[in-house]
Amino acid sequence: MEQIGTATLYCGDCRELLAETPRSHALIADPPYGINLAKLTGSSRNKWNMSRRTVEYDFSIVGDDKPFDPAPFLDFQTVVLFGGNHFGSRLPDASSWLVWDKRDGSTSDHQADCELAWTNLRGPARLYSHKWRGMVRAGEENVSRGGVRVHPTQKPVALMYWVIAQCKLPAGTVVFDPFMGSGTTGIAAARHGLPFVGVEIDPTYFDRACDRLRAEQEQTPLFA
Ligand SMILES: C[S@@+](CC[C@H](N)C(=O)[O-])C[C@H]1O[C@@H](n2cnc3c(N)ncnc32)[C@H](O)[C@@H]1O
User: Fold this and answer.
1) Ligand 1 within 6 A of 32 CB?
2) 191 lines ligand 1 (CB under 6 A)
3) Does the beta carbon of 30 lie inside 6 Å of ligand 1?
4) Which listed site, 16, 88, 98, 160, has its alpha carbon 20 to 30 Å from 117?
């Protein structure tokens, strides 16, 4: 366990922590969708020769090789689950889907134009546009470490900041991401001045989340 400001990060299987997690936490997560991304991309590791360096991406994600069961995660007061279109038959009816338009005006290609998050929020569906097409990534999160992407399915901090705003959480609500990957939801929670609990099963991504949250602690005054 790592305590970084108001963020508490666990390395392990979130299902083992679920029973003791208060249902008043806002569960905002981007779980493995069950789409076997590593297979879709041809192999778990891909290399591209760019003009001046070789970029290597590891696309393997724990749990992504089997269907995702959202049932254990649905009884929280607030729930947002990215990838809901991939496991929609196992989700309740809902009106307030959140749509991330990743194309943001550019033309369609082989990648998805948008990602869909199922929520138990009340109200209409909402749309957020933020370009994120392979290497073309808008915003301050356009980063990689030593030529290696921080996480193969890393979300923009700006997107997760918007998602948290859509939830209209009372002050002090704990944002809980049981599939935190590189900790993007935690950074967005910190920028809202909200406490965060994150869980990540893969030690490499857990370490990246810790690094990112520590860096955030240095620049976000709300993140004591
Ligand atoms: C889709 S990724 C999340 C990426 C994240 N949104 C980001 O911006 O970096 C899902 C993450 O859940 C992790 N994971 C899979 N099964 C898990 C489990 N049972 N408990 C905790 N983490 C798990 C995977 O290792 C992966 O990093």
Assistant:
1) yes
2) no
3) yes
4) 16
- The model's pLDDT over 153-204, given as tens digits with 9 standing for 90+, comes to 899 999 999 999 999 999 999 999 999 999 999 999 999 999 999 999 999 9
Task: Give the nearest ligand 1 atom to 199 CA.
Answer: 21
Q: Where are the domains of the chain?
A: 2-219
Looking at domain 2-219, its CATH architecture is 3-Layer(aba) Sandwich (3.40)
CB of residue 156 inside a 6 A radius of ligand 1 = no
Q: pLDDT tens across 85-125, in order? A: 999 999 999 999 999 999 988 899 888 999 999 999 999 99
Q: Is the CB of 167 under 6 A from ligand 1?
A: no
Our answer on whether the CB atom of 63 is closer than 6 Å to any ligand 1 atom is: yes
Q: How far is the CA of 182 from the centre of ligand 1 (A)?
A: 8
| Closest among 197, 215, 213 to 205, alpha carbons compared | 213
Cβ distance 158 to 164 under 8 Å?
A: no
